[in-house]
Amino acid sequence: MTIIETQHLSKRFGSFQAVDDLSFSIKAGDVYGFLGQNGAGKSTTMRMLLGLIRPDSGKIFIKGSLYTGKEAHLLSYIGAIIERPDMYGYLSGWDNLKIFARLSFRPIPDSRLYEILELVGLRGREQDKVRAYSQGMKQRLGIAIAMVHNPELLILDEPTNGLDPQGIAEMRQLIKTLSADYGKTILVSSHLLYEIEQVATRMIIIHKGKKIVEGSVSELLNPSETLIEINWNNSGEALQQLSASRWSQAIQSADTSRLLLKMHPDEVPQLNRLLVSTGADVLQIRSRHSLEDYFIQLTHDAADPHRAL
């Protein structure tokens, strides 16, 4: 089932084209990564999905129904944090949660709120004033607020912004838990590409408001096309033996200090044994086909179309 679909969505602010003919779909169960450089149109798109901004053209469908901004009942399927969540700092986390629960116009028992607090890791801190919360705690309370009405889709705009490494790891685990254990569909934008690579099942990359690519992470980051970079010391004999082996077709470039191959990561241990047996000193092996590499390549190609030819 498709939870959200956009068709040819566009939005302009004066002379600035924020979103340009953008079409994509989010299916039930997706952890959908929404990637783009600052100013690419991510937040504008999310605001249009929530009816906070009206598109100039294009259509938005929520669970198959056309959403024009007037169908408030369709938003009950969605919970969202856009940029940093706004909360009442002088009130406790519990009071904030109760206020937003009342705003949902649904009977939500306290037991449900305690369950959400437990899920986001704030149980026991709910009576503390929000102004005393760390940024990570505020982000988790924001997710709790977005979940009070038990939405099918969560929209999280840069949920790791301002977090330390521990907070980022906790947010990553929370997103995985919400997806795997609670069946939530999640749209998450982030400039931390490694984090998206860790949690997303599908993704879209946009550049200057336009879609560059959309698909499953496993398909877009095909492991058989992984670039393996090896830093080594060799006298030339190792490279000669490698060029005469079955690995010759995988070699992309090579010199006395660096070797680059396109291959499946599972084959790296066998290759390493061969290199060592030839007398080469292997100093470092690392994968270069990460989401960051892919993102940089695509956005560079989009900025300079002749580069991709």
Automatic annotation (TrEMBL):
<dbReference type="InterPro" id="IPR027417">
    <property type="entry name" value="P-loop_NTPase"/>
</dbReference>
<keyword id="KW-0547">Nucleotide-binding</keyword>
<dbReference type="InterPro" id="IPR003593">
    <property type="entry name" value="AAA+_ATPase"/>
</dbReference>
<dbReference type="Pfam" id="PF00005">
    <property type="entry name" value="ABC_tran"/>
</dbReference>
<feature type="domain" description="ABC transporter">
    <location>
        <begin position="4"/>
        <end position="233"/>
    </location>
</feature>
<comment type="similarity">
    <text>Belongs to the ABC transporter superfamily.</text>
</comment>
<keyword id="KW-0813">Transport</keyword>
<dbReference type="InterPro" id="IPR003439">
    <property type="entry name" value="ABC_transporter-like_ATP-bd"/>
</dbReference>
<dbReference type="InterPro" id="IPR017871">
    <property type="entry name" value="ABC_transporter-like_CS"/>
</dbReference>
<protein>
    <submittedName>
        <fullName>ABC transporter ATP-binding protein</fullName>
    </submittedName>
</protein>
<dbReference type="GO" id="GO:0005524">
    <property type="term" value="F:ATP binding"/>
</dbReference>
<keyword id="KW-0067">ATP-binding</keyword>
